[in-house]
Amino acid sequence: MVQEEARSLPLPPGPLMTKSESVLSPVRLSVRSPADEEGVHDSFQQLIAEHSDNGAASSALELQQLQSDLDEESRDNMPLSGPEHEHRRRQGASDLECDGGEMDPIQGEGWSSDTLKILSSMPSRTIGRNRGAIISQYCNKTLKLRRRRQTRPSIRDFSPSSRPSIRSYGMEGDTTDAEVSKRERLVNNLQNLPVSDRVRMLRGMPLSVAEKKEIRNLVMQKEKRILSNKKLSCCSQLKYYIIIAARKSWYSWLSFLHSLQPWQTLLKRVSGRFGTGVLSYFLFLKTLVFFNVFLFLVTGAFLVLPQAVHPPYRDTTSFSGLELLTGAGSFSHTVMYYGYYANYTLPRRSRDEGGGQNASTLTSDSQQFSYNMPLAYFFTIGMAFFITCIILVYSMSKTFGRSFRINKSNSILTMKTFSCWDFKVIKKKSVQIMSENIGTQLKELLAELTQKHTKSTFCKRFCRLMVHGVAWTICIASTTGCMAGVYYFSEFIHKDLQQNHRNLYVNPLMKEAKLLSLPTVVSVINLLLPALFNLVGWMETYESPSVFAYVAIGRNLMLKMSMLGILCFHWLGRVAPEYKSIGLTCWEDFVGQELYRFLLMDFIFTLLDTLFGELLWRLFSEKVLKRKRKPVFDIARNVLDLIYGQTLAWLGVLFSPVLPVVQILKLFLVFYIKMSSVMLNCQAPRKPYRASQMTTIFITLLCIPSLLGASVCVTYTMWSITPSTSCGPFRTLDTMFKAGKHWMEILEKDNPSLSVLSKAHTYFVENPFFLFVGAGIFLIVIYFHSQVVDGQRKIISLLQDQIQNEGEDKKFLINRLQSVHKQKQDAGKRLKSQDSTC
C-alpha cells in the first residue's frame, strides 16, 4: 500500500518542484563540482520506486549495500563524524518541531542514519553553513564577474574538476588556513572589480555587517598600497581628484534632496506612536500640499505672472481689514479674482475697460509676438485639471497595486521581526523612533493574526442588521435635513441680497459681513453632524476597527458631497443667471469670494474642533473625571475635512487663480496644529489595526467624488453659462468655451493655410462625441489596469499556496522514505533470521 501511494504521489509542476526535488533527493555525499551535482537531483519518489520494484529480499540487500557505501564515505570524510556534525544533525532534527510543543509526524520514531545523512547534504543545510562556504561562493562570483568584464572565457568553459563547489567546501570543513586563503582571493577579486559591482557584491553577501566592513577595509587598504607603489602622472592624479570630487558632490546633492522632503521625522514619530491609521491622514495631507503646489505653479506661471507684469487700470480702494475674512473689498481689484484679468492680448493695453476690447481688432503683427490672455486662461485651467486627473489616476493605480496585493500576515510578521532594522541608524533619537515604529507595526500584525471571526447565530445577525439599519436611517435622515436647511437658507440669503440691492442706505461693511452667514452655517453642520455619526456608531459592533473607520468615512463623505452639491446649485443656478438682480457686476468674483470665505471658515472651525474637541476633552478627562484616557484621533472626519477643502480649492481655481496659495497656507497650518494636538491630546487606538488600504481609499475618494465633481462643475461653467459682460477675459463671448473657436477664426483669417486647424477644432474639440470617447478610453485603461492587478493578486496567492504545499510534500516524502526504510530493515532482519534457522 505504501509502495502504491509512493508511485502515485503527485508533485506540482513548475520551478518550485525542481527546487523541492533538488532539496529532497541528494544521495551522493561526495560532490566535487556543479557538473557532478546534476546527478544529485533525483526525487525521493524515484528512490522509493527503485527500492520497491525488486522485492523485499533484493531491496534489503541493496539497502545494506547502500548503508555500507555511506559508511565508507563517512569514514573517508572525517569532518562529518565529529561532534560538531552530530550537533548539527541534532539541531536540524530539532528545527522541524512544530509550534506548541508537539513533535512533527516525521519524527515519530526517530530518523535513521541514512536519512540524517541525506538531510545533512541538502542545499539548505550546506549553503551558508560557515563563513568559508560563503567566502568560496562569492569568490567564484567575483571571479566570474571580473572575467566577464574583461571579456575572458566564461567559467563554464573550464573542466568540472577545476570549478569549486559550495557544497564540497561545506562537506569537507574549512580549516583556518583555507579560510584565510579564500578571503585573500575574495579581496583580490573584489579589488579588480568596478566600484558599483563591488558594492553590489558586498551587499549581497550573507555575512554580518562587521565582516562586510572588514572585507571592504581590506579591499581599500590593498587599493591604497597599489596606488602608493605606482607613480601616477599628473593627468591621472587630476582625473582621480575630479572623480572623487564629483562623487562627493553627487552624494551631497542626494543628501540635500533627501533633506528637502518635509516632515519626515514627524511622520516617523506619528507612525511609531499611533500606527498606520493616523499616519495615513498626515500622508494624505502631504499629498494634497503637492497637488496645490503644482496647481499654483501652473496658474502662477501662465496667468498670474503675465497679468501682474501688465496690470490693467483699476480704481483702488483702501484696505479695511475685513477683507481677510470676506475676501472682498480691496482684494477684488487684484490678480486674486477672475474679474481682474484682461480680455485682450498682452502686452497691449485696453483703452475701453467698460466693454472691453475685442481681440479681433488686433493686428496680426501684435498677435505674433504677444500673449492672448483669454486663450491662455481657458487652456491653463483645462490643462491643469487634465494633468491633475492623470497624476491622481496614476497615484490611485500605484497605491492600489501596492496595498491590495496579497501579503499574508505571517510572512510580513516574520520579515518585520528579523529583517526590518536599519543598521545605518546610529543616532539615539532616530533609534528610539525606529524602535517605536517597529513595535507599533508588530502590534498591528499580531492583532490581525489573533483576530477571530466567530460565526454568530441567526438571531444575532438579524439584531446586528437591525442596529445597522437604524444607524444608517438616522445618518441619512440627519443629512437630508441638513441639506434642506442649507438649501432654504441659501435661498433666503439670495433674496436678502436682492432686497439690499434695492435699499440704497445699507452699510457696505454690514453687507459684506452678512456674507459670512452661509459659510458659518455650513461649517457648523460639518462640525456637529460627524459627532452625531460617531454617537450612532457606538450603537454598532464591527469585527475590526478598520471596518468602523470605513463606515465612518462613507457617512462623512455623504454629508460633505451633499453640502457641496447644494452650494454648487446655489452659485451656478441662482447667482450666475441673476447676478444683476443682486447688484453684482461680476458674478465670477462673487463666487470666488464665496469659495475663499468657505475655505477660511473651514480652517477656523478646524481650530475650534481641535481646541474644544481634543484639548478641552483631555483636560476634562484628566482633571474632573480623574481618568488617564485621552480621545482617539478621528481619522474619518479629519480626512473628509481635507477632501472637502480640496474640492473647494478645485472649484475656485477658475474664479480665483490664487486660491491654491490660500489652500497651501491652510494645509501647512493644519498639519502643525493637528500634529501638536495628536501628540499632546490623543492616544493610540485601544485595538491596533493595520490600515494597509486607507491611503488607496483616500486617493480614490479624492479622484472620483472630489476631482470629478469639481471638473464637472467647471466644465459646465465654461461650456454653458454666459460670462459677465463687464469683467474678466471672456466678457465679450457667449461662453468661455468659445475663446478657442474665436482664436481659430482669427488664425484662419490671418493665414488661410491654417484652415485645417479650425476644422480640427470644430470636429474634435467642439464636438462632445470625442470628449465621451476620450473619457471612455480613459475608463477602459483604468479597468484593464485594475484587472491586471487583480490577476497578479491571484497569481501571488497561488504561488504562496504552492510554496506551502511544497513544504508539506517535503515532510510527506521524508516520512515515506523513513517508513520504506524501516520496512526494508525489517525484511532484512527476517532474511537474516531465516538464513540462521536454515
Automatic annotation (TrEMBL):
<comment type="similarity">
    <text>Belongs to the TMC family.</text>
</comment>
<feature type="transmembrane region" description="Helical">
    <location>
        <begin position="694"/>
        <end position="719"/>
    </location>
</feature>
<feature type="transmembrane region" description="Helical">
    <location>
        <begin position="769"/>
        <end position="786"/>
    </location>
</feature>
<dbReference type="InterPro" id="IPR012496">
    <property type="entry name" value="TMC_dom"/>
</dbReference>
<keyword id="KW-0472">Membrane</keyword>
<feature type="compositionally biased region" description="Low complexity">
    <location>
        <begin position="56"/>
        <end position="68"/>
    </location>
</feature>
<dbReference type="GO" id="GO:0008381">
    <property type="term" value="F:mechanosensitive monoatomic ion channel activity"/>
</dbReference>
<feature type="transmembrane region" description="Helical">
    <location>
        <begin position="375"/>
        <end position="395"/>
    </location>
</feature>
<feature type="domain" description="TMC">
    <location>
        <begin position="586"/>
        <end position="692"/>
    </location>
</feature>
<feature type="transmembrane region" description="Helical">
    <location>
        <begin position="465"/>
        <end position="489"/>
    </location>
</feature>
<feature type="transmembrane region" description="Helical">
    <location>
        <begin position="596"/>
        <end position="617"/>
    </location>
</feature>
<feature type="transmembrane region" description="Helical">
    <location>
        <begin position="278"/>
        <end position="305"/>
    </location>
</feature>
<keyword id="KW-0812">Transmembrane</keyword>
<dbReference type="Pfam" id="PF07810">
    <property type="entry name" value="TMC"/>
</dbReference>
<keyword id="KW-1133">Transmembrane helix</keyword>
<dbReference type="GO" id="GO:0005886">
    <property type="term" value="C:plasma membrane"/>
</dbReference>
<protein>
    <recommendedName>
        <fullName>Transmembrane channel-like protein</fullName>
    </recommendedName>
</protein>
<feature type="transmembrane region" description="Helical">
    <location>
        <begin position="515"/>
        <end position="536"/>
    </location>
</feature>
<feature type="region of interest" description="Disordered">
    <location>
        <begin position="146"/>
        <end position="178"/>
    </location>
</feature>
<feature type="transmembrane region" description="Helical">
    <location>
        <begin position="638"/>
        <end position="658"/>
    </location>
</feature>
<feature type="transmembrane region" description="Helical">
    <location>
        <begin position="664"/>
        <end position="682"/>
    </location>
</feature>
<dbReference type="InterPro" id="IPR038900">
    <property type="entry name" value="TMC"/>
</dbReference>
<feature type="region of interest" description="Disordered">
    <location>
        <begin position="1"/>
        <end position="112"/>
    </location>
</feature>
<feature type="transmembrane region" description="Helical">
    <location>
        <begin position="557"/>
        <end position="576"/>
    </location>
</feature>
<feature type="compositionally biased region" description="Low complexity">
    <location>
        <begin position="22"/>
        <end position="33"/>
    </location>
</feature>
